[in-house]
Design a protein that fits this description.
alpha/beta, 18 strands, 4-stranded parallel beta sheet, 41% helix, homodimer, 491 residues
Chain lengths: 491, 491
Amino acid sequence: MERDAFEIRDQDAAGRIGELTVPRAGVTVETPALLPVVNPHVRTVEPARLESEFGAEILITNSYILYGSDDFREAALDRGLHDLLEFDGAIMTDSGSFQLAEYGEIDVTTEEILRFQHEVGSDIGTPVDIPTPPDAPRERAESDLATTQERLEIAENVDVGEMLVNAPVQGSTYADLREAAGRHAEATNLDVFPVGAVVPLMNEYRYADMVDVVAAAKRGLGADAPVHLFGAGHPMMFALAVAMGCDLFDSAAYALYARDDRYLTVRGTEHLADLDYFPCSCPVCAERTPDDLRQRGNEERERLLAEHNLHVTFEEMRTVKQALRSGNLLELVENRARAHPAMLDGYRALADHAGQLERSDPASKSSFFYLSGESATRPEVVRHHERLSRLDPEGEVLLTEGSPSDNFDESWRVVAPFGPFPRALSETYPLTAETPERMDARGYEQAARGVARLVDENPDCSFTLAHHDWPASAVALVPDEVDVLDLSEEY
Amino acid sequence: MERDAFEIRDQDAAGRIGELTVPRAGVTVETPALLPVVNPHVRTVEPARLESEFGAEILITNSYILYGSDDFREAALDRGLHDLLEFDGAIMTDSGSFQLAEYGEIDVTTEEILRFQHEVGSDIGTPVDIPTPPDAPRERAESDLATTQERLEIAENVDVGEMLVNAPVQGSTYADLREAAGRHAEATNLDVFPVGAVVPLMNEYRYADMVDVVAAAKRGLGADAPVHLFGAGHPMMFALAVAMGCDLFDSAAYALYARDDRYLTVRGTEHLADLDYFPCSCPVCAERTPDDLRQRGNEERERLLAEHNLHVTFEEMRTVKQALRSGNLLELVENRARAHPAMLDGYRALADHAGQLERSDPASKSSFFYLSGESATRPEVVRHHERLSRLDPEGEVLLTEGSPSDNFDESWRVVAPFGPFPRALSETYPLTAETPERMDARGYEQAARGVARLVDENPDCSFTLAHHDWPASAVALVPDEVDVLDLSEEY
């Protein structure tokens, strides 16, 4: 169904810059967006500062905590959340599903909590879904999902006025269940789609599994649905998750980590005790050394660390958006993958979904930077190989890394990692790619696969491949019927 | 000769944190250090602010400009540079060699300019060396180098009191000349060693050539010499250059780029006109949007951009130092290589010098993160392969990625990218490496080379290799006499 509340403006890979209209708040939130988690009991950084100093357009708080709180329940009902939190942007509320997952039960129904969320003035509410952990037995994942789906159907029929409603997508680590859950959720009249129960995957650094789960949910949800990667607040994985098509992120990490003297960076998490220098120039770090910070009292240190954590988190979100706008989001993902071996696994898993990413990836961008062997499997390379089946070489065809030759009917260029193409396409993206002089085996192998594709599609042509010193692993992928010569052996 | 002025505290790869004692300034400069270039005629950011807000301990200015300046010559002689520039840290002065390279001649001798530098109160002076550009004819490179070497010898005999003196290392792109130049410079009584004329390489993104030039100079200079990568101010390449053993950097870029509305990042240079979001949270960027900045007047915009450029430059220097202290400088180099294909070439060139880096690389660090196929050629892997020749397996030896077996005299582990090792070494660095589940062909190939090394060194043993689904390119590197079985085919 068409999603009136969400409009996509720019795309790169499966990532997008979008606008989520939140009618009850009277605001439009630009995505990808980071929702700081605000605990009404512990305001490490005041919500008003989140808005004015960090640029937060939306935050998230837990309605179940308010619902069960002697301190806040009545105040929230009387004054409303915006007044209570002193925040003018959009406010999303969670339902208690997290508490359900942690403690086994909660004493509220979807209908009750949605009505409560509406009454306290939430702009985006959440039903009580069942977060099935990774690797749960299949039967449990299925029955939990059936319960979640019933609750989405209940939620569809609760009158919550203009409040948007989340439709969480569960299914544990079963790709088919996640995809079916996405398809079901998308068919409801609900508005925003959190991919749920991925926190355990992230805590265990299972980024490859996270990529597979998100890819499956996205296949079910389709391209138009705004997707929230629920519980994902570490800036290290924003680029990867946005490239997969996630639009909303929430961070409790900024505050929770600060309490433990943990310092976020896009390359991982550091403990304040281990830092001699701040690898950051945010207002907190530009004026202080780690030693300065260690000497502050607990409360001030926690607040300053939380502020740093917020700065680096919002900075990364801006970096992701700028990359997306510039058409080099995948270059940023390449970069961010070199933070931890598990992030590399996540990026390598992304390549398994290159076809899925290719469908939304723009046909033309400003540049393609080849930055590693993984660049050889980018969506643009997949697309070029697809395109090869629509090209029509004729007669005796030279595919060459060297000069064209009059001894053939046609002379095509060959460039790793893409493979062959007619010279007339030389100036079209992505064949304008900037590649290293020291190309790797994977790039040559991918070029050889391009040759194989072209040969396979054109059985009536005869092909000669002239390459410069390709590794044996690449030459081995060239079909036997191709006449192969190594230009570097000519002299 | 021993370098009293320079003490090395921490090492990682060929990089180090050091202390350069600058007696005339009465200060000790921690290296790696960034020297902002201050043009006495155009102070984009006041030197006092460089010290107080950005933490600059040392700056560089051009004595030849002062020497020839009607405005400043007398003031510099009367008041001295520290007073003129209002800077308490160390001041290095260049000699006019740059002008010589640009305009073909200058009207001052080494003796005159060194005396002038001494008279104006410079803390580190420079003779008039001859910067030979890359790819110059060999004869020119040799004769220029001979002239530079004569001038170093003249410089040795000029009485400049406590002022330290630079001994530039030239030799164009000839590795043997750079190495000889390094050896000659190190044998003088001069103090600091700029690797000269690399700016054209950086301007042309020839980072692989830059790595080769630095590696050659370092071979000649030896480990104890403080090395200045002259003209290198883009933060993108600090990690790579520090890992090669460079200690000092100077940046005119922060100001020159600001004049052209260019915005530095560790992933390259952006034009302000192309930015929708600031990928930074420095005090300049945290409070403003690119649109805000575009609307400022020329002078304010230039100053703010220069401040951002300085923030990101000093931030990267701190990031490099923190990585070095944490023992993960090479992980940072991996990351920074994914900024541009030419940076990848630079990092791939580094692997050619892994043996050279290995000599200063600590035997133990906190962690080894495998982050790409390039990780397979890190110095630690080279060292492990060397170590294999000192180990003594006996009898029938199983090398296995699976469980040990009683059917053999010894059961060793095999881990990509390292190759085989006795189980007792499992907990020693780097064999504690964190590696991706999705290992690449290069990692397996390097493990196979380790197997080959062990087999080669132990002709009296018989070896069986039990691997999990290694690619054919890796299995092909295992010597024929090894009995190979694939554990993933067992079931």
